[in-house]
Amino acid sequence: MHLAMLLVDYWRYIFEAELPTIRVAAACGQSPSRGFAPPTWRRVVQSAVDSLRELSDARRIRAIYLPENYDRVILDLTERYHILGGVNASSTPQTSHWDPDSDGVLSGSNSDRNSNWNSNSNSDPSLHAAPAHVCLASQILWVHCQELQSSLSMANA
Questions:
Q1: pLDDT in tens, 132-152
Q2: Closest Cα to residue 8, out of 56, 64, 72?
Q3: Which of 36, 75, 113, 152 has the fewest CB atoms within 10 Å distance of its CB?
Q4: DSSP string spanning 41-95?
């Protein structure tokens, strides 16, 4: 779980210098609503994932947590559960379903995690069967998403 927390923190750091709308999109797992076709957003996210890997390598995170653990967690956060960048950032079909019989992966649909958030609940129903590190990463980014959206709306008011 600590590795997932580090990777999410690095993810936030990578987007820190970006425009607020890009930071919100990265935190919320959605492509920006203006000026970003899905292929453009995929390139932005892929560049950020590459930067995430470079930063992790520079800080020896992959070696510290062992390559197989690092690779599993980064795969979970990117292509398997789409926590970093959202489903629009992946070339994986958005309508696919996870195999419920393979090591605790989701059985829900592969939809944007933020479209599933209930305003009366602080949990994403599609993540209930996900590994704890995925749920933690999703929750951290969801809170960050809410903070950025709130500050952006106050700045525009």
A1: 999 999 999 999 999 999 998
A2: 56
A3: 75
A4: HHHHHHHHHHHHHHHHHHTTHHHHS-HHHHHHHHHIIIIIT-TTT-GGG-SS-TT
Alpha-carbon distance of 58 to 55, in angstroms, equals: 5
Rg (CA), the chain: 15
CA 68/CA 48 separation, integer angstroms: 21
For residue 129, give the 3-state DSSP assignment.
coil
Q: Which amino acid is at 87?
A: V
pTM of the model: 0.77
- Per the CB < 8 A criterion, the answer to whether 21 and 149 are in contact is no
Taking a C-beta distance cutoff of 8 angstroms, is the pair 76, 93 a contact?
no
pLDDT at 116 over 60: no
| Tens-digit pLDDT profile for residues 4-22 | 999 999 999 999 999 999 9
Total length of the chain:
157
Question: Tokens for 63?
Answer: 């070696």
Average pLDDT over every residue of 75-91: 88
